[in-house]
Recover the amino acids of this structure.
């Protein structure tokens, strides 16, 4: 299960990383209006959340006393490199924590703001949270780059070609091998009550 968690989080980190490669320093700090967040501010919030949630996550509440969430929405960065260093710090903390997950603690109880969660539920909660914010980052980056944007998924008007490539890649011999164990009822990693 840990490998599946890592795979999914790594995918969202990759979307952010590939967006950042396309942006200038100035674009990291661009805001649509005063009530909007720049990419730099979204990164500050995501990484701040990661550091709070995943530091000593098995033994301490995920909302650390040292966290200042409101400050995460104020830009304090001066350069793109500072922003990216903080982004990496957050992900390093997350991946370090995910590597501590095993069969024995997967359903252990941990706390976020005193609310009890199983470890697996906390992972899903944060996966949803981070993918939401990475989506914001990608959307802003795509708007800023406009016609210069290099797509991160299937290029427009190329769905049929992509589907053909995937069919060729995963031949009939591979039909019993699931690339995502959560999505298929016959996977050994899906609990019995979810099988049909």
């Amino acid at each position: 299960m840990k490998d599946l968690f890592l795979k999914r989080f790594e995918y969202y980190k990759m979307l952010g990383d590939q967006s950042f490669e396309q942006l200038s320093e100035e674009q990291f700090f661009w805001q649509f209006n005063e009530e909007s967040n720049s990419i730099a501010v979204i990164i500050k919030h995501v990484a701040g959340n990661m550091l709070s949630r995943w530091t000593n996550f098995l033994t301490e509440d995920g909302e650390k006393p040292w966290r200042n969430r409101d400050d995460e929405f104020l830009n304090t960065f001066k350069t793109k490199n500072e922003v990216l260093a903080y982004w990496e710090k957050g992900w390093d903390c997350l991946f370090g924590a995910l590597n501590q997950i095993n069969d024995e603690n997967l359903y252990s109880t941990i706390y976020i703001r005193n609310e009890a969660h199983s470890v697996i539920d906390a992972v899903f909660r944060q996966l949803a949270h981070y993918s939401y914010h990475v989506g914001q980052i990608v959307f802003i980056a795509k708007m800023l780059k406009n016609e210069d944007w290099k797509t991160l998924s299937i290029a427009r008007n190329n769905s049929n070609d992509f589907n053909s490539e995937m069919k060729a890649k995963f031949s009939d011999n591979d039909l019993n091998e699931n690339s995502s164990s959560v999505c298929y009822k016959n996977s050994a990693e899906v609990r019995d009550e979810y099988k049909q």
Confidence is low (pLDDT under 50) at residues 181-187. The two ends are 20 Å apart (CA to CA). Helices lie at 2-20, 25-28, 39-54, 80-98, 119-145, 159-169. Residues 60 and 128 are 21 Å apart (CA to CA).
